[in-house]
Amino acid sequence: MTTPDISIESDRLPQRKSVLQHIGSLARKQPLGFAGGLVVLAMVFMAVFAPWLAPFDPEQANFADMLVPPGSTSEMGEGFFLLGTDQFGRDLFSRIIYGARTALLVGFTAAIIGSCAGLALGVASAYFGGYFDLILQRIIDVFMAFPLIIMALAIVAIFGTGTEKVIMAITIPFIPRCARVVRSSALAVREMPYVDAARSIGYSSARIIFRHIAPNVVAPFLIMLTAFLGEAILLEASLSYLGLGVQEPTPAWGLMLQGGAEEYAESAIWVPIFPGLAITIAVFGFNLFGDAVRDALDPRLRSQ
């Protein structure tokens, strides 16, 4: 009696990929999305480990080292300024690292709250329909008639400045935009046979919404969430630049631009250029990551 060749059979079995192989495959398929993901991870790393990465206190003014160019040492012998100092002698490198905390706090909070509220309103509007849907959609039309920055400026003008007010000012314009997108997907899901079957056997509206409709509109919800992250960071920087966002001495990239973009554009170019680069790289990275998430979740794009 012959025994089966175990080595031949084992060679035919699919080999499980390691984590590095999965990462390499993702980098080949979505190089831009992978680059955006690296930017997101770098920002998270900077925000979490800011106390250990920053060589100086970002809020500590040192008038003996005002407008020191990049690569210079402190006049007081306190250390090395990698990116130079601002008009108050504060280390730009430390303020950019801590500024990632402000950007992520505002960006993630506003994007998550706005997307979740939009998800709830969009699903409810599609499921209940009738006058509720009609009235809600007209209210959403009013909010969507204003650009994001104009709506955020109006809210900040009403409620005042500060981190919490900025988060609220960015969150509110996100809600109708997410609700409109989620509603269009929920309308299609509402007509599916399994929803009719659940309704016919007496399931409550809450169970149908949470068990059958909401899970099937997660893809557009995640796409909107990732898109909102980059927009929230840009909006926070814009409001801070205008003096209506985060206030001194909190490190924020837009606030750093507001303090040096015009006055020191020629005499100390490093004061506005490094915060501007930080904003550009962060928004670009989040947009690339959001596009990759959209491509991964959209079946029409995934099949190409």
TrEMBL record:
Membrane-spanning residues = 32-54, 103-128, 140-160, 213-235, 269-290
Keywords (A to Z) from UniProt: Cell membrane, Membrane, Peptide transport, Protein transport, Transmembrane, Transmembrane helix, Transport
A biological process (GO) of this protein is: peptide transport
Q: Which SUPFAM superfamilies match?
A: MetI-like (SSF161098)
Protein localization: Cell membrane
Q: Which InterPro entries match?
A: BP-dependent_transpt_permease (IPR050366), MetI-like (IPR000515), MetI-like_sf (IPR035906), OppC_N (IPR025966)
Designated name of the protein: Peptide/nickel transport system permease protein
